[in-house]
Write a structure and sequence with these properties.
183 residues, mainly beta, Lipocalin, eight-stranded antiparallel barrel, elongated, Lipid/polyisoprenoid-binding YceI-like domain-containing protein, TTHA0802/YceI-like_sf, Lipid/polyisoprenoid-bd_YceI
Length: 183
């Protein structure tokens, strides 16, 4: 992947800060081969910086200890060394390396680090528009999605089912709903 961005940002130059009150970081993963467990990370932050020439850059951080699957026991297990090893690796990070046009939408390339492992990922990004805001400055909205393989990031626990298959699937879908405030 190249560090050059091939498209200009659809938002004005400046720094845009992710508003965690109006944003969400959600995920889903196959459970028992037949359904999905859904959850969120309740603590996260990030910025979108747009140069005067329109080149965007994104940096984001997720507090993996803020995982919320609505089951305290499961959340505790996910934070353990079996999965995130959150005591050693409490943060996941994303740093963009480029943005490409994809029809009316975009592809946001970047390096994602989870459990101390960094891999390139590409998020499907939809720009929702901008709004003058409600007295605090302009806001911009985005939705993004990426599917990662947990094993690529060292989360390789195997929990086989007696009749075949596994308790937890390998593919994790991460969905971001982001509102950013221009600083």
């Amino acid at each position: 992947m190249t560090s050059a961005t091939s498209v200009k940002a659809p938002i004005p130059a400046g720094t845009w800060t992710i508003d965690p009150v109006h944003s969400a970081v959600n995920f889903s993963v196959k459970h028992l081969m037949v359904s999905k467990v859904r959850g969120s990370f309740d603590t996260f932050s990030g910025t979108i910086t747009v140069d005067e020439n329109g080149t965007p850059a994104v940096q984001a951080e997720i507090d993996v200890t803020s995982i919320n699957t609505r089951n305290e026991q499961r959340d505790g297990h996910i934070k353990s060394a079996d999965f995130f090893d959150a005591e050693t690796f409490p943060k996941a990070t994303f740093v963009s390396t480029g943005v490409r046009q994809n029809g009316d939408d975009y592809l946001l390339d970047g390096d994602f680090t989870l459990k101390g492992v960094t891999k390139p990922v590409t998020l499907e990004l939809e720009f929702e528009g901008t709004n003058p805001g409600m007295g605090q400055g302009a806001v911009a909205g985005f939705e993004a999605k990426v599917v990662i393989n947990r094993k690529d990031f060292g989360i390789d626990i195997e929990m086989p089912l007696e009749g075949g298959g596994v308790v937890v699937g390998d593919k994790i879908t991460i969905t971001l709903e982001i509102e950013a405030l221009q600083a």
